[in-house]
What does this fold into?
Amino acid sequence: MENKNFGYFDDKNREFVITNPATPFPWINYLGNEDFFGLISNTAGGYDFYKDAKFRRITRYRYNGVPMDNGGRYFYINDNGTVWNPGWKPCKTPLDFYECRHGMNYTRITGSKNGIEASVLFFVPLKTWAEIQKVTLKNTTSEKKTIKLFSFAEWCLWNAATDMENFQRNWSTGEVEIDGATIYHKTEYKERRNHYAYYTVTNAKIDGYDTDRESFIGLYNEFADPQCVMAGKPSNSLAHGWSPIASHYIEVELAPGESKDYIFMLGYVENAQEEKFSAEDIERKKNGTLISSQDSDVTLVNKAKAKALIEKFSTVEAVDAAFAELAQMWDALLDKYVVKSDDERLNRMVNIWSQYQCMITFNFSRSASFFESGVGRGMGFRDSNQDLVGFVHQIPSRARERIIDIASTQFPDGGCYHQYQPLTKHGNNDIGGGFNDDPCWLIFGTVAYIKETGDFSILQEPVPFDNEPGTEVTLMEHLRISFNHVVENLGPHMLPLIGRADWNDCLNLNCFSWDPNESFQTTENNSEGSKAESLMIAGLFVVTGKDYVELCKQIGDNAEADRAQKCIDSMVEAVKKHGWDGEWYLRAYDFYGNKIGSNECEEGKIFIESQGFCTMAGIGLEEGMVDKAIDSCKKYLDCEHGMVLNNPAYTTYHVEMGEISSYPAGYKENAGIFCHNNPWVIIGETVAGRGNDAWELFRKISPMYLKDQALHKVEPYVNCQMVAGKDAAKPGEGKNSWLTGTAAWMWLTVSQYLLGIKPTYDGIMIDPCLDSEIKEYSVKRILRGTEYDITVKNPNGNQKGVKSITVDGVAIEGNIIKATPGKHVVEVVM
Ligand code: BGC
Ligand code: NOJ
It folds into this structure.
């Protein structure tokens, strides 16, 4: 049976079920899907934040701890001296039963020990700034049981970066309030912050609490043996500075067979300046029903919003209803594209996990995962544009908003901030710009949005430059300057200048860094007089440029379409003339104009990105370049786990190439299997009609087909950014799971290019590219309110080419089904 060591897929419930808590790495899930978010591992590790994992970190988490995943939302049970956690960690007391079910924006962890079963459901209700933890305790014995339940959360002092470095300040600022079962965290609230957090039990009284970490855990104890839990007694501590925490203590009595639900809620509130403080609580502080760590009465937080939410979720029925609503949202989201085929792994990927991962990457870009600490990287310009292509069919209105946010950070010359912060939506100055592929991706994202929605009005939206009010031009104008940015930045071979780097952040051809204290990404570039050109941008420009031309025609601007087409034609010529190495496309020219990714090079003779984008663009298709390039990829880049980024790997540092040559061979951008760019080759293979090759590579990259989950190490239900390549010490070992452009590209590849159901301006294009073994499948696709029930038959085992299509029994010409309202039955024969 597959996944037998650590877990299995439960497709009916859309869950991955982990049965052994000691997974090869923490296997995580994401809670929340707008504004309030949580990361949660299979042992309940992780943290919460509001919108921005750097500026509004709510609970504290220490990355790269020992053991690996330490700290989270922990429930401790002290059952007559036996102390254990439902999620096994941190106590690691052996459990009689353990199971973690990661589902769509929720996680349910169940553990049992000595006749007590404890199940915790973690989720964030829709449109709610709080995480709910529904704890169900059940006595499965025939004796009465009395147990002690402790909760635990550790507050982060809001800014996740300073929280882990500025202790001379941090250890003096922490402040809390305790009001019944609710513990409020209000550090810095009395001065510039308009927000506080709270942790509460909504449906029960508590029998004690702790808010000071050392009082609860003990200076010489650990998460695994907090002194209060071990002693079976809270200390009712009041935090003054140091590290404020929130822990509730409840004595639970359970009759034989009885089960009780406790609803814990961890929330976040923002108050307007004039409503920050509470007059009513002053009285309560005086009579001792409210406890504050500050003497001053005027600093008591206004709890109205927290209390309203606590009230709202004070019953099990209300919580269950909110949980049902979340499931309904996912029913609807996952109903837009549903495949039925003989291959359950394909169905599982397309119908559940790929779409789920696309939502997650859309929400987080590259900010917060167990590999991204949430402090360094906000929303990537190119990343977010790619992510939204995987997400746009789910909630188009959010994709629309995102496009405007991204475009608003662009500069008047078409250049872009490489990243922006989700909280402020402003460009991130620490990272800056100058990555010359960035502008192209805005065209890529916008076109996908319009094809999905038919909403051309977005092109007329006024969008500023660098968020500067008064500078607004239309979004269409932003697209024009994006296109022009490439045209206006050509090098000696009339190929695009690379700038700081292109899609490959580590191909730093103008950086020349000898100082280990500087970042390859941000150090001053030496681009004056540079001849560094990128074939990846050339291919990307042709792909997205064609989209731009088509868009111009759609809106009736034929003159602009003609002008743009000429630029594309020249680019195609330049690639054929200066970008072809004989058996494959070159990767780049360096600062001095020397070739990169050529047979003439000693290492790095061939790179995947230019093969992917130039074949996708169909450059030199008639001359046989596309086929040759794919053959070369198969010959030099392919291995058991997918295609590596470059070959041979670099074994020494090349100052003229930058970070790429800093990585050991076989890892990351130096000949790792960078999953993100494998789909580009798969799509290139579909352009060449090579279905068998395309599906073979697809199955290597999709985690659903994984053979060895222990080797793969990271979550087997989502893609990771990189799998160690053939030159690495452990080929096949995955790293950097979840937040990767692989998600959107795998979705695009399987939904539009393999299964071949593509939204177009007029309706739907049917253009599958199949493994000759695939004889039949069906897809339900809802586009702009119209439902298409499409059956594809491939009786002769063809790889490409549609022979006939009928719509509601009537044969049509060509392979585009015009959008007409209603529900249509479509039969396709290959
Ligand atoms: C990584 C890249 C990443 C970049 C972003 C590099 O160290 O290798 O994958 O895009 O950092 O800052
Ligand atoms: C990760 C970055 O988020 C993405 O933008 C980049 O394209 C890849 N690394 C490759 O360097």
